[in-house]
Amino acid sequence: MSILLVLMCSVFDVTHGLLFGTYGSSTCDSSGLWYDYIVVGSGAAGSVVTHRLTSNENITVLLLEAGGLPLFHSDVPSLAVLQHLSRQNWGYLFFEGLIDNLMPWPRGKVLGGSSVINSMLYVRGNSIDYDRWANAGNPGWSYVDVLPYFKRSEDASVVHRDLAYHGSGGLLTVTDVPYRTGSAQLFVEGFREMGYPYVDYNGASQMGVSFAQATLRKGRRCSAEKAFIRPAKVRSNLKICLHSHVSKILCSSDKSAYGVEYIRNRRRLKAYARREVILSAGAFHSPQILMLSGIGPKQHLSDLGIRLVENLPVGEKLYDHLSFFGLLFTVNKPMVTSLQESISPANLFKFLLNGNGPLTLTVALEAFAYYKTPAANYSENYPDVELMLSGGSLQSDNGTLFRTAFGVTSDLYNSVWKELESKYAWGVLPILFHPKSHGKVRLRSKKPLDPPLLYGNYLTDSENYDLRAFISSIREVQRVVKSPIFQRFGTKQVRPSVPGCRHTLFDSDEYWECVIRHLPITMDHQTSTCKMGPRGDPEAVVDHKLRVHGVKNLRVVDTSVFPVTLSAHTNAPAYMVGEKGADLILNDYYTTE
User: Fold this and answer.
1) Residue positions annotated with a catalytic role
2) Where does FAD bind (predicted)?
3) Cβ partners under 8 Å of residue 259, min gap 6
4) Second label for 165, Cα 20 to 30 Å away, from 158, 255, 334, 355?
């Protein structure tokens, strides 16, 4: 298996250079050049902003990206986890607040950002989420306001979709996953038997069950680089500089941003912006760059000896969507797939020639059900938990790639998953959409190449809502698997032998709380570290036009601005923020022309 995988990746990467051509001209090593706009970060939002601004040939843009070109094997959906082990990942680890756990927090360090290493799932969220966003003092961000931006990006070919809610002809391809395992069919039919309607969860109603919608094009990953940067790279008014690590924003004495300092080839360089600097570096790096530039919490910056430019609560709140391993089931029929089967010669040729077969699976994350738990403290009918089918689990590759990528030790793997290697096993990942617990981002030092300090603070809310919601979601899955169709296939719940939880009674609430604390997993949906809100909001960093409070000519356009948690995965909303952010920037450009 490993030899074939290495050979496939090598062939892809040789071909890769021919398709991408070159980025990053020699002028990237020249200091003191001027542009109309400087965009920092090429993830979903930054790529959209770059594409839309350079659509006007009179606007010059410099795009700075700390990473390099995507590895070509990132195009293969089922190998998404492999990207977490590559140079395309910043490689951050989180080790606070959970028991005996070293949790990876993958973030994309590559042209296209995290859209190159993510699971490609396209989930926008609930209309109520965006109405809450607007009602928090952010006019222009209600669902009726943002829906046109979702549609603008999209070229949707999902079979069962609410047409009024989807776009066609956009640059981002959104499709059904071409291949489905039997476990996905079982999951959807089982939830339908137990009262869940089949829905387009990106349409009129989110409450129900559905197969996954994904950012795929002809069975391959459709990343921000492929959708937005690649078509724009030929424009003479765009310069892209890779391997360029932005160290600070340059601000004048009147608190106006006029450029950036960045490190490339071990040299400190400067680039200047006539109009604006746009931070799209993501929920970790946008606050890090702001704080390195003197924009952040006064005491924290003072402790590090950083001169204060503007006292703002940068990095004070970090929300994330937590889930956990351990909700596992076996069936008596072969309805799951393994990595070894996926990369067989026959399936490799299916993928290369036709863009189908199991290699198109988005890491076997194939279907969703949306559930409002009794722990939810709101009256509206929208979900606080997503139940996501994993048509396999860590045993799908016999404990090699997946175990390593998720930071699971061999001892833990052997205790929980080893016995499932010879069985037909799949899992459900309950995802907590609206956690009460939140973490924060801090600077490790004032050295720009030092990674930021990341605090998750999972499961620390005083109301104990987070754990109650998780346990309720477990009970709901247990209820659903009693349906006739699940029982027809001999569905049985696995009793994982989790070290540290063996003293508890299996299936008690105490047992599940222990499992959740020992087997957590992040969904990589970190947000809100540069929260949007009016100037009077003590938690706000940017206003509703994404302008940094108190600093001129500086905006943040990425997931860090989300003021509320969303019933969503963050990739789709990031594209939307990029679209709307580009309009806000262009509106100001044309107003001042």
Assistant:
1) 525, 569
2) 110, 246
3) 38, 249, 250, 270, 271, 272, 273, 277
4) 355
